Amino acid sequence: xxSVHAKVLAFSTEHSLFTPGDTVVVAVSGGADSVALLDIxxxxxxxxxxxxxxxxxxxxxxxxxxxxxxxxxxxxxSRGLPFAGEKxxxxxxxxxxxxxxxxxxxxxxxxxxxxVATQYGARSVALAHHADDQAETLLLRLLRGAGVTGLSAMxxxxxxxxxxxxxxxxxxxIEGYLHGRGLRFRIDSSxxxxxxxxxxxxxxxxxxxxRFNPEISRRLAVTADLLAVDEEVLETxxxxxxxxxxxxxSGEGVILDVAGLLREPRGVRYRIYRRAVxxxxxxxxxLSYKHVLQIDGLVRSPKPNLHIPVPGGVGVVRAYGxxxxxxxxxxxxxxxxELIIEGPGCYPLPDGGEMVIDVVSPPADLVTLPSxxxxxxxxxAPFPWVVRGFRPGDRINPLGMxxxxxxxxxxxxxxxxxxRRRLVPLVFSNSELVWVCxxxxxxxxxxxxxxxxxxxxxxxxxxxxxxx
Length: 468
Fold this sequence. Notes:
Blueprint: H1 2-14, E1 23-27, H2 32-43, E2 50-57, H3 63-78, E3 83-87, H4 90-97, H5 101-120, E4 124-126, H6 131-144, H7 148-151, E5 157-158, E6 162-163, H8 171-181, H9 197-210, H10 216-245, E7 246-250, E8 253-257, H11 258-262, H12 266-281, H13 289-300, E9 305-310, E10 314-319, E11 322-327, E12 339-341, E13 345-348, E14 354-360, E15 373-377, E16 385-388, E17 395-396, E18 405-406, H14 407-413, H15 418-421, E19 426-429, E20 432-436, E21 440-441, E22 454-460
Helix pairs in contact: 2-8, 4-5, 6-9, 6-10, 10-12, 12-13
């Protein structure tokens, strides 16, 4: 018994799973592993943990499920610990969300444990996964197809809150502990049902692999741990790469620089794409290797404008040198009405930015004005001005040219992404387009040596990113 306690304490200390005095929710199903977990945590008296026993009744096995709930409630009472129990209709959740029973049960459990942890102010939720579970999970994900992220399997700590102190123990060590302590536990009949892939791996595949290596479960668990260490390094690399390639990240999506992406190794690009989808949608559910390859094909394509949908309702749009990841339900900013500028002042723009108008002395050097500023001869461009978004057919007589040019052609020349074209303000005076903000000013309204009154216009974006 002392050996088991020492191993769990050393593992918990190595991975900083607990701090003395922590409130910890213990997930107890009533089965062998979770009963052992509860008993071991109680025995680690030096940690002085305040334990809360939590049990979710999945309502899948009728009277047997109800018996499990009563057993866990009685176990908590016998140890003088608070008990939090709840029933969930996992089968209905499975049908409603189109999930397997296993996935639906997992979602229901984690949501329940989160609620209990919040209710009791718990820092951690302890789960009873052990080394053999680790091996089974690695094989399960290998059979379904996974990279390093998936094959690294279960980490000692997940999502900051969920901890797995028994990953250092094998199933046989846990069974020996239960026998030595004389602990009773419940047997879940569904664990023998080989209709579930995990059960087939446990009862059929691993026994077959034992013929090749008697220590197969332990070796697979070590492999998963080594992959988890590599995963930490790769995630750090991906974080830095995302910072290098991201042009913008807001509540509306993520914009990445194509040239920057193409400088990154292929494996790093793949991780950046996954990050971008997760940031845009909040989940990676349904995203497979096939979709990642499609995104990479879009990035590497010589075509400047492409669009593909990916699972989760995310649209990936390539527009010249930028790739935008955007949730399908997020509406773009539109010019619903024309903005009337009566004279000097500060006027709000639809994207949250503003247009500032001042009457000033002519600047010494008009050529050096940044793209977000422009000067006009007020006699040639009198107020009121009308500011609106781009419409097909809009034309301007650009400064220095004798004829007119389509605004659409200007956008194409400047490689302005289609989604951003509608956000560029167009300024009109006397129905003549005098400024495509950030790109071209009109020849007729230019400042000359004969100009008496000069007006300076400036566009300030909400993001602080330059117009061009």
